[in-house]
Amino acid sequence: MDTTTPTTETAPAHTPFRVGIVGYGNLGRGVEAAIAKNPDMSLVGIFSRRPPSSIAPLDPAASVFSIDDLAGRENDIDVLILCGGSKSDLPEQGPELAARFNTVDSFDTHARIPEYFEQMDAVARRAQNTALISTGWDPGMFSMNRLFGEALLPDGETYTFWGRGLSQGHSDAVRRVPGVAAGVQYTLPSSDAIDAVRRGTRPELTTREKHTRECFVVLEEGADSEAVREAIVTMPHYFADYDTTVTFVTAEELARDHSAMPHGGFVLRSGRTGDGHSQIIEYSLALESNPEFTASVLVAYARAVHRLSLMKQHGAVTLLDVPPGLLSPKSAAQLRAELL
Question: What are 246's strand-pairing partners?
Fold first, then answer.
C-alpha cells in the first residue's frame, strides 16, 4: 500500500498540511484557535477584506493578508476555510475560491443548500478541487444525526430543536437589513414541544409551534424602526415562518447583555420497532461558544477534504458523503482498536 496517499487505512503524513482562513470575524478567530489544537495542520495565513493592519490575530506571529493576496497562492495552501456569512459572502466567495483551492465552508441557508451545492460542484469539478459545503453543527452534525435516526428507525419522525442560543447566520442577516447598526438573534425552543416528543407521542408540530425568534437591534441614526422591524420579521428563509419579536436597544445595552455566543439544541428521532416498542434517539449540544464549536467542526472537515483531494475525489461534498474516519488524525487501525 502506498503510505504517502492517505486512505481510511493509513495514518496522515508527518508534514502538517497547510490551511488558510478567509474572513476574520468570530468564526475566523475560532478557526485560528482550533488549528492551534491540531498539530497535523499549520496556518498559512488569514485573508481578509479588511486592511491587514487592522486585524490582531490570536497568535501575534500569524500572518495576515488582503484577500486579494490569494492570487498566485494555489500551490501554498492545501485547504481554505471560508468564514464568511451565508447571506452574501459565501454565495459569491465560495464558487470563486473553489475554482482555485480546496475549500470548506459553513453555508447554512437550508433551503438554498441544493442550489449552492450544484454551483460549487460544477466549479470544483472543473478545477479538480474538493469543496465541502454546509458543515458545522446545523447544517452539519445535526444533519448527520438526522440521517442516523431515519436509517435506524424507519418507522418514526425526526424533530430538531435549536437553542436557546445566538444564531450567527441569523444575526448576520439581521445586521444586513438597511437601518441596522448592530444586532443579534436568539432562537428559543418550545419546552412543551420537546417534552411531547420525548414521551414518544410523535406530535405533528408546525414551524411556529417548535421555536420562536428574538432579535435585539441597534438602529442607525435616523432609521425608521417600523421599517426595520417589518424587513426582519418578513425575511424569507430566516424569520417569515416564525413568531419573531424585535426589541430595539442601545449599543451599550447590546454590548452589556448580548456579547456572549451560547447555542445548542437537540435532534430526536421517535420511532417504533418490532411489535410497536417505542424507541427514542437523542443527540444534543450545549455550547458556550457557537462560533468556536462551529470552527472546530470546520477544521476537522478540512482534514477530511485534504485527504479526499489527495485521493482525487473532486467536486462538492457534504459531511453526509465523508467517511467519519477521515476526520480523525488517527489511523484506521488506531480507531478500530480505541473506539470500536
Answer: 215
Confidence of residue 169 (pLDDT cuts 50, 70, 90): confident
CA distance 330 to 303: 11
**What angle (nearest 5°) sits at the alpha carbon of residue 325, between those of residues 78 and 135?**
60
Angle between helices 113-127 and 89-98 (to 10 degrees): 20
Which H or E element spans position 293?
helix 290-310
**Of residues 27, 31, 300, 285, the one with CA closest to residue 169:** 27
Residue appearing with cell numbers 417589518 = 230
Identify any residues that bridge with 328 across adjacent strands, giving them in sequence order. Answer: none
Nearest to 307 by CA among 154, 84, 78: 78
pLDDT tens-digit readout, 184-200 = 999 999 999 999 999 99
Contact 224, 217 (CB under 8 A): no
Residue 126 — left, alpha, or beta (φ > 0 → left; ψ -120 to 50 → alpha)?
Answer: alpha
Regarding pTM above 0.90, the answer is no
- Residue 312: CB atoms within 10 A of its CB come to 9
Distance of CA 304 to the CA centre of its chain: 15
The reported pLDDT for the residue numbered 244 is 96
Give the C-alpha separation, 82 to 100, whole Å: 13
Give the confidence band of 178 by pLDDT, cuts at 50, 70, 90: very high
Residue 3 pLDDT: 36
Find the DSSP H helices in 99-163. 113-127, 141-152
